[in-house]
Amino acid sequence: MKLTGAQALIKALEMENVEVIFGLPGGCILPAYDPLLDSSIRHILVRHEQGAGHMAEGYAHVTGRPGVAMVTSGPAATNLVTPLCDAYMDSIPMVAITGQVSTTAIGTDAFQECDTVGITRSVTKHNELVMRAQDLPLAIRQAFHIATTGRPGPVLIDVPKDVLQLPMEWYWPTDAEVADSLPGYRPTTKGHPRMIKEAARLILASERPVLYVGGGVLKARAATALRELAELTQIHVVTTLMARGAFPDSHPLCLGMPGMHGTATAVTALQKADLLVALGARFDDRVTGKVSAFAPEAKIIHVDIDPAEQGKVRRPDVPIVGDCRLVIEEIVKAIKDLLASGETQADTSVWRSRVSGWREQFPLAYEPSEPGEALKPQFCLEKLRDNAPQGTILCSGVGQHQMWSSQYWKFEEPYSWVNSGGLGTMGFSVPAAIGAKVGRPDATVWAVDGDGCFQMTAQELVTASTERIPIKVAILNNSYLGMVRQWQEMFYEERYSEVYLSPDLPDYVKWAEAMGCIGIRVESPEEVEPAIEKANAIDDRPVVVEFRVDAREKVFPMVAAGQSNDDILLPPMQSARRSGLS
Ligand SMILES: Cc1ncc(C[n+]2csc(CCOP(=O)(O)OP(=O)(O)O)c2C)c(N)n1
Question: Which pTM does this prediction carry?
Answer without folding.
Answer: 0.98
